[in-house]
Amino acid sequence: MANHDSANEVFLALADPTRREVIRALGRGPASVGELAHPFAITLPSFMKHIRTLEDSGLIRTSKSGRVRTCILDRDRLAVVEDWIEEQRHVWDDRTDRLEALVTDPEETR
Amino acid sequence: MANHDSANEVFLALADPTRREVIRALGRGPASVGELAHPFAITLPSFMKHIRTLEDSGLIRTSKSGRVRTCILDRDRLAVVEDWIEEQRHVWDDRTDRLEALVTDPEETR
Known about the structure:
The structure is a homodimer.
Chain A: H1 2-13, H2 17-27, E1 31-32, H3 33-37, H4 44-57, E2 60-65, E3 68-73, H5 75-104, H6 106-109
Antiparallel strand pairs in A: 1-3, 2-3
């Protein structure tokens, strides 16, 4: 299913500390690749791999103007993770409700 | 950092639809590997790989009694994802507050 693949890419993109830091930095606003790379002690080609992984996942979009590539966060794609977590909470709440019903009125729910 | 590695493993474990379905199923309560594997059209060895990946990430714990291995969800480990998302929301809120301040009182924030 398309939805599954899409979620896989987002979770995979977030399974790396450098990429999570880039997402956090872009939460403060758009930034150039140079600005984003600055705090990391890795080569630019290595950093660009992370940028491409994030771009492929849809979490960020990039555009080039002259020699500067600017990155921007797509918060809608992070909603994939938020929605999934929210779904799990519903599953847990349903379970808690059922267990509660069982404790307060075991005959009813048998 | 230990925290980073730990989050990496959780995000990586969730970057697969079968493993996300297992997490959802275990949200309803503990279950045996046989019960969990039932909905999936994959071999038991392939399914066991997913179980081990989930176990290594700390998202589930398993215990064996006789021939039955039972799995249980560790919701505390899913909090790694919830907490990270929550952190990003704070970053976005701060940014929105700053932008708002800039619009309502540009002199103040200069």
